[in-house]
């Protein structure tokens, strides 16, 4: 049985991709199965936390006892997170949020008219949910501990350290390559202000339990 290291804590987690509409039948998205975030939600719940899981479009069952909020776009995810972050103690951002969305979504399906002319698209930047929460009042006051994820294809340690600083989070977790999209196992690099420690390749379920233990250990003595 998992030790109940998160009793009394409200853990907010984002998971999966976001989907940004181009028209009613098309859109752009990121590759993410949501498995790591769902595994963390399950592990946090098993550790006694109240868990809110804000999920982009994924085909995964809701872990037992977890409150799930389904969203589609980055803007939807942002709004759901901002609401729940008001009473959360821990925020873990695993979602692969689309960095940009089409400036406007067409109301009706864009037709291919046979002329060979292709649609031109303008993008606007989506909100950086993690950075906004981590720079917000509750995180800055030490009431909300924020954890970010990084999926890098090279220089993981340097990129993870830079991302940790840029996002303003105490703990940044790097996915150790090769890309783990949809896989059931992974390996993680935990980067904080003191060190980088590796959680060697294991099932996402096992890694989630280890990560929850690492977060619980840091939260118990943490203030910003
Ligand atoms: O900047 P990058 O997308 O690489 O950062 C990844 C981390 O930031 C992840 O924790 C991801 O969930 C979070 N993120 C976010 N909102 C965005 C982009 C990334 O919360 N718009």
Automatic annotation (TrEMBL):
<keyword id="KW-0511">Multifunctional enzyme</keyword>
<comment type="function">
    <text>Catalyzes two sequential steps in the biosynthesis of coenzyme A. In the first step cysteine is conjugated to 4'-phosphopantothenate to form 4-phosphopantothenoylcysteine. In the second step the latter compound is decarboxylated to form 4'-phosphopantotheine.</text>
</comment>
<keyword id="KW-0288">FMN</keyword>
<protein>
    <recommendedName>
        <fullName>Coenzyme A biosynthesis bifunctional protein CoaBC</fullName>
        <ecNumber>4.1.1.36</ecNumber>
        <ecNumber>6.3.2.5</ecNumber>
    </recommendedName>
</protein>
<feature type="region of interest" description="Phosphopantothenate--cysteine ligase">
    <location>
        <begin position="11"/>
        <end position="224"/>
    </location>
</feature>
<dbReference type="GO" id="GO:0004633">
    <property type="term" value="F:phosphopantothenoylcysteine decarboxylase activity"/>
</dbReference>
<feature type="binding site">
    <location>
        <position position="163"/>
    </location>
    <ligand>
        <name>CTP</name>
    </ligand>
</feature>
<feature type="binding site">
    <location>
        <begin position="127"/>
        <end position="130"/>
    </location>
    <ligand>
        <name>CTP</name>
    </ligand>
</feature>
<comment type="similarity">
    <text>In the C-terminal section; belongs to the PPC synthetase family.</text>
</comment>
<feature type="binding site">
    <location>
        <position position="167"/>
    </location>
    <ligand>
        <name>CTP</name>
    </ligand>
</feature>
<comment type="pathway">
    <text>Cofactor biosynthesis; coenzyme A biosynthesis; CoA from (R)-pantothenate: step 3/5.</text>
</comment>
<feature type="domain" description="DNA/pantothenate metabolism flavoprotein C-terminal">
    <location>
        <begin position="6"/>
        <end position="217"/>
    </location>
</feature>
<keyword id="KW-0285">Flavoprotein</keyword>
<feature type="binding site">
    <location>
        <position position="109"/>
    </location>
    <ligand>
        <name>CTP</name>
    </ligand>
</feature>
<comment type="pathway">
    <text>Cofactor biosynthesis; coenzyme A biosynthesis; CoA from (R)-pantothenate: step 2/5.</text>
</comment>
<keyword id="KW-0210">Decarboxylase</keyword>
<keyword id="KW-0456">Lyase</keyword>
<keyword id="KW-0479">Metal-binding</keyword>
<keyword id="KW-0436">Ligase</keyword>
<comment type="similarity">
    <text>In the N-terminal section; belongs to the HFCD (homo-oligomeric flavin containing Cys decarboxylase) superfamily.</text>
</comment>
<feature type="binding site">
    <location>
        <position position="99"/>
    </location>
    <ligand>
        <name>CTP</name>
    </ligand>
</feature>
<keyword id="KW-0460">Magnesium</keyword>
<dbReference type="GO" id="GO:0004632">
    <property type="term" value="F:phosphopantothenate--cysteine ligase activity"/>
</dbReference>
<feature type="binding site">
    <location>
        <position position="149"/>
    </location>
    <ligand>
        <name>CTP</name>
    </ligand>
</feature>
<comment type="function">
    <text>Catalyzes two steps in the biosynthesis of coenzyme A. In the first step cysteine is conjugated to 4'-phosphopantothenate to form 4-phosphopantothenoylcysteine, in the latter compound is decarboxylated to form 4'-phosphopantotheine.</text>
</comment>
